[in-house]
Specification:
Blueprint lengths: L2 E14 L2 E14 L3 E5 L6 H8 L7 E6 L2 E2 L5 H10 L1 E4 L11 H11 L4 H14 L15 H13 L5 E5 L7 H17 L3 E6 L10 E6 L2 E3 L2
Parallel strand pairs: 3-8, 3-9, 6-7, 7-8
Antiparallel strand pairs: 1-2, 1-4, 4-5, 9-10
Bound molecules: adenosine-5'-diphosphate and magnesium ion.
């Protein structure tokens, strides 16, 4: 198995009004291709901060991250943009689907932006929408979909550009228990089918056994339970 991610001694401090907030303190781990990692922890413990650093949306105070063949801690903004576009698929608590486009068009857009022809983008998007079991909702606009359905489209969109690494930040945080389970099942199945690597962060510890590995963040450090 090849290594997708190596996180080495990551520290993250925030300063406000002269006080240093030590959010992450010496986080290290690695992830192989096709593996999934669940990170839990109380609200405010640094889960989103860590995920954003790995996704190139935020920078660490110190430490190194090798992700999908890139040393992202030393990349300039142009290279980071490319990394975010090609190597990483993001899923957030809020779906961020474009409201004036249908479910299918929302999946076609990242493919068209990446240079795929309209025909190929449509075929690929149809396959993705089928994977998340929403083929019969392909012409619906986001406002015509339920919360769980919108998150399933967001999952399909995260996979559209075939990124090696999927980063999910509280992807079921807005859903009731039944929909939450359904969205989780689809996410883990699709990641497994496509052999992608997944890091999912959540305050919901009931999900912890769904991945290959589980860590909790406590006082800025990883605790392996
Ligand atoms: N831009 C920022 N400036 C200062 N403090 C921040 C900033 N972003 C997050 N924090 C603080 O860092 C801590 C971790 O936040 P976050 O990673 O969002 O936690 P979680 O996702 O686990 O709820 C919190 O105490 C939060 O207030
Ligand atoms: Mg968070």
């Amino acid at each position: 198995m090849s290594k997708v991610l190596e996180v080495e001694n990551i520290f993250k401090n925030y300063s406000s009004e002269g006080e240093d907030l030590h959010v992450l303190q010496d986080i290290s781990f690695s992830l192989n291709s096709g593996e999934s990692l669940i990170i839990t922890g109380e609200s405010g413990c640094g889960k989103s901060t860590l995920l954003n650093i790995i996704g190139g949306l935020d920078s660490a105070t110190s430490g190194n991250i090798l992700s999908c063949g890139n040393n992202i801690t030393s990349m300039n903004e142009t290279k980071l943009t490319e990394y975010r576009k090609r190597s990483v698929g993001f899923i957030f608590q809020f779906h961020y689907l474009l409201k004036d486009f249908s479910a299918l068009e929302n999946l076609m857009l990242p493919l068209l932006i990446n240079g795929e022809s309209k025909k190929s983008a449509r075929e690929h998007a149809l396959k993705l929408i089928n994977d998340v079991e929403l083929f019969d909702r392909k012409s619906h606009f986001p406002s015509q979909l339920s919360g769980g359905e919108r998150q399933r489209i967001a999952i399909a969109r995260a996979l559209a550009n075939r990124p090696e690494l999927i980063l999910a930040d509280e992807p079921t945080g807005n859903l009731d228990e039944k929909n939450s389970r359904m969205v989780q099942d689809i996410l883990f199945k699709i990641v497994d089918d496509y052999k992608r690597s997944l890091i999912l962060v959540t305050h919901d510890s009931s999900i912890k056994n769904k991945g290959n590995f589980h860590y909790t963040i406590k006082s800025g450090r990883f605790v392996n339970l």
